[in-house]
Model the fold of this input.
Amino acid sequence: MRNIIRKSAYLSALLLVFSGVISCEKDFTDIGTSIIDNSKFKTKDTILEVTITQRDIDAIRGDNLAIGSVGEYLLGVYQDKKGDYEKIEASLVSQISNSLAIDVTDGLTDTTTVTSIMDNAFIKLPYIATKKEDNPDDGTPVFDLDSLIGSTTVGVSLKIYRNNTFLHSLDPQNPSQGNSYNTDYVFEKGELLNEDANFTFIPNPNDTIYVYDRTLKSGNTFKDTLKLVNSNPFLVVPLDKALMKSLLYDKFEDDEFSSQDDLNNYFRGLIIEASGDENSLLPFSFTGTLIPTLELNYTNTVVKTSTGEVLDTIRKMASFPISGVQSRIYKMSPEPNPASANQVVIQGAAGKIADVKILQGTQLQDLKAKDWLINDATLTFYIDKDKDTTAIPLRLYLYKEETNYSAPIKDSYSEGLDVFSGSLQKEYDENSNFVANDRYSFKITDYISDILRPTSVKNSNLVLKVYNTTDNPIKNQALDTVVTNYNWNPRAVTLTNHLPSNGEIKDTRKAQLRIIYSERKN
Done:
């Protein structure tokens, strides 16, 4: 009882007489919330139509300047098989951090001479993977790649370019302000750095080692092996040895490497570009112990100057973390089979969002005309099951669009995300067998209670999007009052909207708001 009164007060309301509103008596066992229902009160519900309109996104913020290195970066290409959603080609641009391990003279003394030979150069991209039980036949580690969307037998084209755009953390036009890059920003490409200009990659959880040659002063070679912590799988993109020697290795002892700023100015980073028509898209993490790097391997042969005797062979590696100023690049292509008029697409990354309007026309004022105690308000969006659901979002997010900024809905932090929800709800048969992905629902009881008060808050336009981890309104145990437009969740879903072709409001799959309330008996 105390909790109900806190969440909702006696509100002015007059039950609507308009199309799309249904009221009926409800039994306690059907409601699942605290309800007032005694000799003085009776409980009813009403179902209201919700207007939901699709909106395309040209670009979203892609850089890490406001959130540091937290987050994932998509790499790859994905187009659903039915062509219901936009194809995404996900790439990234990043600076590199100066290596602390550069020493081409390691082993040099008054009596020795060192010959340093560069062996190879490559990009190392550790996969986000979950370790399973080792292979019982040979004991080799077995992994699953996390969050992989799509699968293919033909590799996705992956090209590594030298970035010629200087990446600023401050606005070049106004250095007192922070800078930002959208996902459609065009970065200037320099030299293609690939060893193979036609390099393609297929994500493979079995790629846990990389074997390469090292070269001695004599010209003889021997094998070396790269293996990550816990045998985590990783992707290797070999780079042009001669070009990387000229660009980086030969500069190790020059001014270009004297400081991070000098390196940033000379070698402005990498553009890692995915393209093509194959369906393979996955995230890479740029935090933690396993971060992507640019690797240069070289071998120092130490000889005794007086005799030429080989005293030592030192295996060296210059590892440059792919870090600093970074930004996501999303190239979105129109869907071959766009949604019909009675459907709305929600797609992450730089795809689509939807505008949601509730209590329109005279509905709001009519509902304020009579005493109601709001017990529960649930906003539900139904999935169009005829559309592709291969890579459906596990959660959507609903927020308010205010003038010049976006804000979280009160319930998302007053009740918490688990209650506010937006999580995918599935349909099961009488034997608990999965039937289909069904709907997304949001509990917005506090929000509805507030806008129905006599001194109400604004009935804002609402926006529906694919949930991203940055959407959580509680960050570091504090409320974040602004919803940012980051998104590295590329999943997509089609919903039914409010048009009459989807049926009347009762017992249909139209977007709808259900309000359960108590009112005094006459």
